[in-house]
């Protein structure tokens, strides 16, 4: 479960990135999964949410998802188009670090 200011927006972002669908949705809570009734990742509204400032230890990451991909360039294009932003993009390291639309860091691992 991830805290965020807009659970519908963040749920839609991760549903698209992970190839899932929204399985539950109300004003303050969204759940995504691969099929109806399957609760795999949830998003909860936090009106006082402050995103981490990775890698700043004064505002550390609350979570960190690693998403394995076959084609990092295509996956990067997709997540940037969906609203992510690149935090660290070294070539040849096996991972790239991004912030989702609410500011949570996540990696594309290849």
From TrEMBL:
The lineage of its organism: Bacteria, Bacillati, Actinomycetota, Actinomycetes, Geodermatophilales. Residues 1-110 form the VOC domain. InterPro entries: Glyas_Bleomycin-R_OHBP_Dase, Glyoxalase_6, VOC_core. Gene3D superfamilies: 2,3-Dihydroxybiphenyl 1,2-Dioxygenase, domain 1 (3.10.180.10). CDD domains: VOC. Residues 42-62 are annotated as: Disordered. This is VOC family protein. Pfam families: Glyoxalase_6 (PF18029). SUPFAM superfamilies: Glyoxalase/Bleomycin resistance protein/Dihydroxybiphenyl dioxygenase (SSF54593). It comes from Blastococcus brunescens. PROSITE patterns: VOC (PS51819).
């Amino acid at each position: 479960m991830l805290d965020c200011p807009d659970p519908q927006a963040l749920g839609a972002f991760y549903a698209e990135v992970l190839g899932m669908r929204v399985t539950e949705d109300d004003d303050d809570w969204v759940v995504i999964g691969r099929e109806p009734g399957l609760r795999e990742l949830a998003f909860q509204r936090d009106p006082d949410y402050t995103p981490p400032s990775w890698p700043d230890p004064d505002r550390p990451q609350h979570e960190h998802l690693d998403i394995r991909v076959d084609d990092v360039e295509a996956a990067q294009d997709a997540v940037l188009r969906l609203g992510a932003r690149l935090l660290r993009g070294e070539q040849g390291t096996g991972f790239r670090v991004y912030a989702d639309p609410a500011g949570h860091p996540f990696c594309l691992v290849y």
